[in-house]
């Protein structure tokens, strides 16, 4: 089953908006047993969209269009597709009532152009929008089937999952499906991971292994194609075990939407532990990363950002002689920052970050030199030096990821 994704919007071509919908839709369609052969971005232009639809008709069974369903003049997807298949646009009664209800509740005047959000292609299946006002459509044509979805990911994703998937399964029934598991790794590069798993990757048939390099981590998607869910689970688990026997030291979690920060927060909550931090070069990035995770207040009471030596001394209690003798980019300073922040926060763990984010040197230390201290409630304290390359932001992000991994490992190894 061949599928094609067409993202509509001049803002995508100009780079003002990143096309994350294509990634999401490709993965979701693959899970339904549909292979995406083409992805295209086209601007808000009727003639160019019509040309693209003519081409897509010749090569794809399913054509997914995202964007251009809103109320403005440049929202022309429904109009062009309707004309392309020789159908009219008709008002969807339910979508119309939702539209009226929205404007009544918000005590706003509804302009006439908003009505086009409730229009759908004649003889199509209307897809309601759980998070917005523009309805979607699924139309079965003579040559191809057309799926029209809104552009904002917050609207597209729930509409696809809740409303489009059941209809697509009816239109394109299949005995075999794709079942996938995503394994996430930190502390090992893609090239080393692929080398360690070379024979498994070279000999793959079903399941398959696909590595993806991300910022400061690597993921593996293992996928099996079968009509039996129990068999899929068995095959995926067997391959996962083989993989983890070799690189399990670097494995930290599952899933596309997971993160090392979420895993750390979940571990802290599960073990009844707390953490604080004292940050210099990362300027609060570690605490901000933790703060983005729901439920973090249970395990993170707060921390300090002490960029200057003056505040390290005044707020954190780092000894002035420590900084004079060893400097702020040092093992000694990192340890004192961690120990003193642990005492201030009364937590089980404390991390400290000090170093040179760059681009210039500091205290004779090269950009990318980072000391991370780890103090524990039982009195143990250590500090390790790391050397991260690339730009300032990458150095800061790398330090945060390393700190998260240190906490993760400390929790798992604590007796």
Automatic annotation (TrEMBL):
Q: Where is the MoaB/Mog domain?
A: 4-170
Homology family: Belongs to the CinA family.
Q: Which domain of life is it from?
A: Bacteria
Q: What is this protein called?
A: Putative competence-damage inducible protein
Q: Where are the transmembrane segments?
A: none
* HAMAP family membership: CinA_B (MF_00226_B)
Q: What is the lineage of its organism?
A: Bacteria, Bacillati, Bacillota, Bacilli, Lactobacillales
> What is the residue range of the signal peptide feature?
none
Gene from which the chain derives: cinA
